[in-house]
């Protein structure tokens, strides 16, 4: 059972999310909060698997809450926003969120996203991910990290990372590389372990930061 906490300053939004998630046999909403401070407190108390986090809230916003929750390894965070290039969403990714969804995401996609975050998979569309990362690098002044951090990867693992950074799903990577999807998942697990990364989003960001993949290319 995947245990979920809902964080949003609008009660109606939380009610709607609870209805969608509690209708699933493998998902259970175990708590709610209406601001960032409440989110951190609830995370410490409930130790959920995934938190659905609004980023724009009064008091402590979702970005700071995400930073604290991820920093204490209390839960994985999936942030929700109204705009696909929201500065708050971008900051939340920097703070350690595993991805983000738009608030008008269809129910089936929301359920799939929660499951994916729990499993450590990708949860944002390739087009939105690419635009966010392009912007992330532009705002950092284009300064790249030392690419030698990637030397621990095999050629095949490096190829998988490139395809991840291009926004391809596991199935699409498998098809392109003529490998099974299970093999791709194994490679991704090894990439995360070798690079000491928390999830797929961090791996994609690192690929951009080291110049393995360049914005717009």
TrEMBL record:
Taxonomically, the superkingdom here is: Bacteria
Q: Which CDD domains match?
A: LuxR_C_like, REC_NarL-like
One GO MF term on file is: DNA binding
Q: Where is the signal peptide?
A: none
**InterPro entries tied to this protein:** CheY-like_superfamily, NreC/VraR/RcsB-like_REC, Sig_transdc_resp-reg_C-effctor, Sig_transdc_resp-reg_receiver, Tscrpt_reg_LuxR_C, WalR-like
Q: Which UniProt keywords apply?
A: DNA-binding, Phosphoprotein, Transcription, Transcription regulation
Could you tell me which residues carry 4-aspartylphosphate? 54
Residue limits of the HTH luxR-type domain? 146-211
Sorted alphabetically, the Gene Ontology BP terms of this entry are: phosphorelay signal transduction system; regulation of DNA-templated transcription
Q: Where is the Response regulatory domain?
A: 3-118
The protein's matches in PANTHER family, at most eight in alphabetical order, are given as:
TRANSCRIPTIONAL REGULATORY PROTEIN NARL-RELATED (PTHR43214:SF24), TWO-COMPONENT RESPONSE REGULATOR (PTHR43214)
> What name has this protein been given in UniProt?
DNA-binding response regulator
């Amino acid at each position: 059972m995947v245990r979920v906490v809902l964080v949003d300053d609008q009660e109606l939004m939380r009610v709607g999310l609870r209805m969608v998630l509690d209708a699933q046999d493998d998902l259970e909403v175990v708590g709610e909060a209406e601001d960032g401070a409440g989110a951190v407190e609830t995370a410490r108390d409930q130790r959920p698997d995934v938190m659905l986090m609004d980023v724009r809230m009064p008091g402590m916003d979702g970005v700071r809450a995400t930073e604290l929750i991820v920093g204490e390894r209390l839960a994985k965070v999936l942030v929700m926003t109204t705009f696909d290039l929201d500065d708050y969403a971008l900051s939340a990714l920097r703070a350690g969120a595993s991805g983000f969804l738009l608030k008008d995401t269809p129910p089936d996609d929301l359920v799939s996203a929660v499951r994916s975050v729990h499993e450590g998979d990708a949860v944002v569309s390739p087009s939105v991910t690419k635009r966010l990362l392009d912007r992330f690098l532009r705002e950092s002044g284009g300064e790249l990290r030392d690419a030698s951090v990637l030397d621990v990867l095999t050629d095949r693992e490096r190829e998988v990372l490139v395809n991840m950074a291009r926004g391809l799903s596991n199935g699409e990577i498998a098809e392109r590389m003529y490998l099974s999807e299970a093999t791709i998942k194994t490679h991704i697990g090894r990439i995360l372990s070798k690079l000491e990364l928390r999830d797929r989003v961090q791996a994609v960001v690192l690929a951009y930061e080291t110049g393995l993949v360049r914005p717009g290319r």
